[in-house]
Amino acid sequence: MAPVFPLHNARQPHVAFDKVLRTRMQQERVTFTENLREYCLNTTIHGLKYIGTVSLTLCERAYFFLTFLVVTACSIYFISKVYIKWQSSPIIIGLNPIATHIKYIPFPAVTICNMNQVRREAAERIEAHTLEQSVLQSICSIDGDFNVTQYEGKWTAVKKLLLSATQPCAGMLKACRYAKQPEKCTEIFQSVFTDEGLCCTFNTLDTVYMFRNATAPNIFPTEVSSGSGRFRPILWTPEQGYAEHPSNSTYPRVIAGTGVGMGLAIVLDANVSDYFCSSTSSTGFKIIFHSPTETPKITDYAQYIPVGSENRIIITPKINDAADQIRKVAQAQRQCVFASEANLSYYSVYSRNNCELECEAKLILENCGCVLYYLPKLYEDTKICSRANARCYEQIRSSIAFTANTSLSCTCLPGCFEISYIPDVTTAELQVGLFGIRETLLDDVKDEQYAKNNLALVYIFVKDTYYRSFTKGELVGFTDFLSNVGGLLGLFLGFSIISLIEVIYFVTLRPYCAKRKQIRTILKEHNSETNTLNAARNDLLWFGTKPPATVVQFLGRTNDHDYANDHQLQPGHNAMVKEYTTKLKHLVHSRLQQANAWMRNTFRSRRNQLGRGFGQERTGTSYPFYD
Q1: H-helix segments, 493-570
Q2: pTM higher than 0.70 for the full model?
Q3: pLDDT by residue (tens digit) across 205-259?
Q4: 569 burial class (0-12, 13-18, 19+ CB within 10 angstroms)?
Q5: SS3 category, 487
Q6: How far from 182 is each of 175, 228, 319, CA to CA, in Å?
Q7: Measured between alpha carbons, how far is residue 555 from residues 178, 564, 569, 582 in Å?
Q8: pLDDT tens readout for residues 561-578
Q9: What region does 425 belong to: left with phi over 0, alpha with psi -120 to 50, or beta?
């Protein structure tokens, strides 16, 4: 029996196959040039199929290639223009096509101040070189020599003098009427500290909703306000509107209707004989219309109401709102602030006016160590500025007002949702007692001379039922930008989303799928070859029992006995025997050739293993062919 040699390395055929697999993959790999050519021939982008067509001459392909580069450059240029416009001017302001009914608009907050800041009677009672005199000089802006060390700047002392030395709302407001209903003036007006001293305001937001900390010192002296008994405060903001449905017993009040009768009518008394100091050179009143959420600036922006006059003031609400799409645009580009972006520390509701007041208070406190009495104060012990600090805080205020100054400035953007009121004032001379009049508010006025020197009648109303708002929207939104870019790419290149998908396919998915397909093809060929060799080996290495003899029965003969009886075959039968014999020879010859090749390869492989296999123990593995 022939010797049986152990297998040196069972994994060697697999290693060899992996090497062959890598070699064939490298040889049959689809190159980048072939992949690019196929992309050019199949893409939907215009012009590339001519570049990838091999049948065209080099000159023709170069012509289309240069044309494609020029067209691509033009499309990039125009797309950059669209992008610059999108980034630099993303906002447009236009009239809202949907008008706002006045039932959703609050009546303007009306703040009225007597031009007389301190009553003469109260000022004459103040003794010289006292703390009260220091506060008086600060209120009236009077320069003089006084003991600065005696002034402590406490808010309680300043507030006490303001309440005792200025004209109260009960003395200035003689008669009031709103929406044809007579009202007690002290119930609909409340006192407020402004840069003009103690004033009276109508329809403002309650302190609970206006300030973040309701216990901090604020501009409303609650001890003199009695308007919180009959009317209930509710929340209103320019962005969200009313938190609940307003009624006749809530404030801020909505605009009740149009015309003089549905507005606010008031009779004012200046009490000119009690004037001590004034910020103006005349007698009368200052009036300003503002949002219910704001603190007014009377000195700079109020309008005059002279005594002895009847005034009709038509109010036009100016509503500014914004589309929700511009929230994603930066503040520097949209130039407005949403309520959720506000970072005020004193006021709850953001507006440019409230932001500027906070900024002014912080700058004066940082540079002068005190705060003016009407500015926001976060703490009770914050020092109130006296006349001794006038040079410092006046310089700060001038720097803030001077727009070209960059060292000290308050950069406050307007709110994206804001409301303001534009007044249109007409004035006539007030006549009382000369003839019969229809106005019932003047029924108690009998002295014509006193009315001419001290009183003023004011009507405040609106004349339209609907008002359109100014809406900030997207000039070029992302959808518009995408449409413009798609139109330009389609015009110049015929580019579309499908073209982009094709690029992604040819860069990523196609190489991966081609590699997978190549591996499957090689494995299929390898398995086919292996199966063929195994079949040939099994045919040659068959050691079973000898098969039974095959009986060849020629045509026309039923058995061997007939064949034996008929010794001479017919000519057709001889040809058939020759044909079968030739086929059998060819079959045996091909089988012998296959066996010869297989034996040579097998002996060569075993001979190579003999040199590496000697010295190793036999594993008991036997090979039928050798045996």
Answers
A1: 497-504, 510-540, 560-565
A2: no
A3: 988 898 888 677 777 876 444 444 678 999 999 999 999 999 888 989 999 999 9
A4: middle
A5: helix
A6: 8, 18, 29
A7: 131, 14, 11, 18
A8: 444 444 444 555 566 667
A9: beta
